Amino acid sequence: MKRSDSTIESPDEMIGRLLEWYAGNHRELPWRQDREPYHVWISEIMLQQTRVAAVIEYYERFMRELPDVQALAAVDEERLLKLWEGLGYYNRARNLQKAAVMICKEHEGHFPETYEEILRLPGIGAYTAGAIASICFGQATPAVDGNVLRVITRLTGDASCIDLEVTKKTIRDRMVPLYEGCSAEERGKLTQCWMELGATVCVPNGTPLCDNCPLAKDCVARAEDRIAELPVRARKKGRRVEERTVFVLVAGDSFALHKRDTKGLLAGLWEFPNVEGRLSMEEALKQAEDWELSPSGPWMELPYTHIFSHVEWHMTAYYILCEKMTDTLDRIEEITWFQRDVPETTAAVPSAFRPFLNLLRKSGENS
After folding, report:
1. Most Cβ neighbours (<10 Å): which of 99, 164, 176, 354?
2. What per-residue confidence (pLDDT) applies to 312?
């Protein structure tokens, strides 16, 4: 290992230490029980932007209902989105199904085995393709995500900005010799070594656990006291803030939901009727009157902020009791009334609106 030149050599001794560490320290996760590409693929897509602990339950439920690529290709989209509910970034689920259909049509239901073919599937980028190709098929294809970038830039003292595609590609290319010197079986384990090292030792937040790292003696950042400086990230742009007024409309044992458009943020998901801007309680009641819902009075007011990657919704929800059910609301179009006492609807409600729904159901249980 050369110091401060941002390169990686491939000494057998270093690879041996990595693989030995992984054998004794990796977490037992359900998608690591075999090398089935369908399992690795679904887990990697779920793990994007989501913690491992949160993904396990989703993954196991998903596999019980959609155990193979054929089942995924055939499932109704509404049910697919319901299975994905709470994971966010719902286009990931839609792309999973598009890819499953493509696998069934173009590959006779068999997962493609080369990096290039895997990369052609909808929703799969270089990282996921590299992970599947190396873990499942023993190819020399590094999988470079944020965890791996953090490990490698600290290991080599590389101060390049990791948010740039050129940096990701350069690091990926530098890692290839490490894989070429391994057997097919070792390549898959090496990919998981890097992932595990970044997730549990060279951690994203807080002080890295260098005493537990098998590469500590090779680490440039540690030797030069530059751990806090690396990796280098681009300055994030501030999020746009939007005010929204949410209407939790309750008529008897029913409540109203609206299905969003098929394009844009939260496309095709269910939400409580809402309008832009923050209305007062009196203005919200007046709006309900204009919708001809015959509101009998406000029930509760609940503020809530939901943060997306690029925008913050500052929401004020008004729980309003209504005497009438109307199927069309001006500015919102069609709505659907669901029974409040059912434990779950078949509609996928995104996290931005889940707190309002959970409180509504809880109040129904206590009434």
Report:
1. 99
2. 96
Residue 205 has pLDDT above 80, yes or no: yes
Selecting among 44, 85, 186, 196, the annotated active-site residue is 44
44 carries an active-site annotation: yes
Tell me which residue has tokens 């779950």. Answer: 344
Ramachandran assignment for 268, one of left (phi > 0), alpha (psi -120 to 50 degrees), beta (any other): left
Residue that the structure tokens 């937040």 belong to: 205
Contact 284, 291 (CB under 8 A): no
Task: Work out the angle between the directed axes of helices 146-156 and 184-200 (0-180°, nearest 10).
Answer: 90
Interhelix angle 37-47/52-65, nearest 10 degrees: 140
CA 290 → CA 149, 160, 286, 296, 330, distances in Å?
55, 57, 6, 13, 9
Cα–Cα distance between 32 and 112 in angstroms, integer? 19
Residues 94, 353, 88: CA angle, nearest 5 degrees: 30
- Whole-prediction pTM: 0.90
Token pair 């070429």: residue:
180
Q: What is the pLDDT of residues 45-86, one digit of tens each?
A: 999 989 999 999 999 999 999 999 999 999 999 999 999 999
Using DSSP, state whether 362 is helix, strand or coil.
helix
Evaluate if residue 11 carries a pLDDT over 50: yes
Residue 41 backbone zone (phi > 0: left; psi -120 to 50: alpha; other: beta):
alpha
Taking alpha carbons only, the member of 13, 86, 76, 3 closest to residue 46 is 86
Burial 128-151 (b: 16+ CB within 10 A, else e): bbbbbbbbbbbbbbbbbbbbbbbb
Task: With CA atoms as reference, report the closest residue to 89 among 50, 144, 127, 59.
Answer: 50
pLDDT digits (tens, 9 = 90+) for 179-200: 998 999 999 999 999 999 999 9
Helices (H) and strands (E) in the chain, counts: 14, 9
Q: How many other C-beta atoms can be found within 10 angstroms of the C-beta atom of residue 112?
A: 21
CA 333 to chain centre: 30
